[in-house]
Specification:
This protein is of the alpha/beta class. It contains 13 helices and 15 strands. The chain has an 8-stranded mixed beta sheet with strand order 3-2-1-4-5-6-7-8, with helices on both faces. Strands 10-9-13-14-15 form a 5-stranded parallel beta sheet, covered by helices on one side. α2 (28-37) links the parallel β1 and β2 (41-45). α8 (213-244) packs across α10. It is elongated. The structure holds nicotinamide-adenine-dinucleotide. The site of nicotinamide-adenine-dinucleotide (NAD) has 27 residues, from α5.
């Protein structure tokens, strides 16, 4: 190990290293809190002044991080935040946790990484460790981050150290959080890998070293592509079951009793969130640049993207049993967050379902205890909406209720008792009812009709 690397290693192991986290969102804030808890001084840098103010006030804005933790860490001067990148001069390590969305053209949007790295580069000094955590295509650390940092005249692996370590946070998961999810780490050089491993080791239980930044980048894309492809498969199975009058939910539940060689995935209204719908596109974009045609990713993408249309077909079918059309019907979407019990609506399929119903003339409302308001810019209906309170006896006012996100706080018994018809895209209402249309399950028997064997 070089002398410079040895000095940083000593500062990390003695917790004297000053850690910095760029991007204080769902990934960055929990990480900053873990570093501060581990005994480091952690400084968050974010362009969003409201987030910086919240930290200064000892307030958390991320459900998985408690305000009491933020308050006690800021009070004990372990955690602070700023919008000013000049603090980089005082830092020994930086973890970059900025967004990596897609452009409208479905190409990777590297602008957040580029602007964060350019801002860091202005204050880069010898002996620093920079770790990229944002999910991205294989090669980003070497092809994008390294040249921007080396434009300062300092050399990666010699004057400063560079690594990639993918974030695996699962918002809303009470069992697995930043500290107990194994952390994959790939360094540009062996010194880079050792330093990044040591940093994480101080706050995270298990470190999984891999041979390069490219491998670490690919690991994350494999994990999320695996999910996207398997969800695509089970969504296709749900469409088949619909035709064959078989209950896909019963099929998956029985299949998962096999103790080996099977992993349960469930169908739903489409992919959501910042990761599963986006990350596979990063991989296919990069693969195409090498002349490779990534067929699985594309196929799963087509199937998953079509699911909101299928949900709308189910709504039409459900309303039809009441001699109603989508046009002019009052439709309530129950749950618009992209998954259960969280407040994140990024890429949520609920927004697509709402937009499609609106385009067909439905009057769309929504209920979501985690998302009190929906901005006009967030969906194609272009109206500011406020969440409806289902507890207020409002259920019966709607022609159709569509369960898109199965929050545990919804009163499903009340929905079944009071709704005119329900489309259930999550199997939240497990039993068959004449007015409940479940995705991928046999059509309910019309009320009043007796089945003759
Ligand atoms: N949210 C998840 O569940 C999750 C899970 C695994 C990986 N990831 C990946 O982690 C990365 C971050 O995701 P997130 O969910 O935390 O995003 P986020 O939008 O919650 O947070 C990103 C933060 O970065 C800040 N930011 C943007 N540009 C900046 C800049 N130039 N300088 C300083 N701050 C800047 C934003 O203001 C925001 O606070 C993404 O690449 C994402 O794909 C996210």
């Amino acid at each position: 190990m070089s002398e410079l690397a040895g000095a940083l290693l000593e500062r990390i192991q003695s917790r004297r290293a000053r850690t910095g986290i760029v991007g204080l969102g769902y990934v960055g804030l929990p990480l900053a809190v873990e570093f501060a808890r581990a005994g480091f001084h952690a400084t968050g840098i974010d362009l969003d002044a409201r987030k910086v103010e919240a930290i200064a006030d000892g307030r958390s804005y991320i459900p998985d991080v408690s305000s009491s933790d933020v308050l006690s860490l800021t009070r004990s001067s372990r955690l602070d935040a700023t919008t000013d990148f000049s603090v980089v001069r005082q830092l020994d390590t930086i973890n970059i946790c900025v967004p990596t969305p897609l452009r409208k053209t479905k190409d990777p949007d590297m602008s957040y990484i580029v602007s964060a790295v350019e801002a860091i580069a202005k204050h880069l000094h010898t002996g620093m460790l920079i770790v990229l955590e944002s999910t991205t295509y294989p090669g980003t650390t070497e092809e994008v981050v390294q040249p921007l940092l080396e434009a300062t005249g300092l050399k990666a692996g010699v004057d400063f150290f560079l690594a990639f370590s993918p974030e695996r946070v699962d918002p809303g998961n009470p069992t697995f959080q930043t500290h107990n999810v194994p952390k994959v780490v790939g360094g540009l050089t062996p010194d880079c890998a050792k330093l990044a491993g040591a940093l994480y080791n101080s706050a995270i239980k298990t470190i999984v070293p891999v041979s390069s930044t490219r491998v670490a980048e690919m690991v994350k894309l494999l994990e999320n592509t695996f999910r996207a492809v398997n969800i695509g498969l089970v969504n296709e199975l749900a469409l088949m079951c619909d035709r064959m009058n078989i209950d896909v939910w019963e099929v998956v539940d029985a299949a998962k009793t096999k103790p080996f060689g099977f992993m349960a995935f469930y169908p739903g209204p489409g992919l959501g969130g910042h990761c599963i719908p986006i990350d596979p596109v990063y991989l296919s974009w990069k693969a195409k640049q090498t002349g490779f045609d990534p067929r699985f990713i594309e196929l799963a993408g087509h199937i998953n993207a079509a699911m909101p249309h299928y949900v709308v077909e189910k709504v039409a079918e459900a309303l039809n049993t009441k001699r109603k059309a989508i046009n002019g019907s009052n439709v309530l979407i129950a749950g618009i967050a992209y998954k259960r019990d969280i407040d994140d609506i990024r890429e949520s399929p609920a927004l697509d379902v709402m937009g499609l119903l609106h385009a067909k003339g439905a009057v769309v409302a929504y209920a979501d205890p985690f998302v009190p308001t929906l901005g006009a810019r967030d969906w194609s209906g272009h109206a500011d909406l406020q969440a409806v309170d289902l507890a207020g006896g409002t259920i019966g006012q709607y022609d159709c209720i569509v369960i898109v996100t199965d929050h545990t706080t919804f009163d499903y018994d009340a929905l079944v008792a009071q709704a005119e018809v329900i489309v259930d895209t999550r199997n939240a209402i497990k039993k068959p009812y004449p007015h409940v249309f479940r995705l991928g399950a046999p059509r309910p028997e019309p009320e009043g009709r007796t089945v003759v064997a």
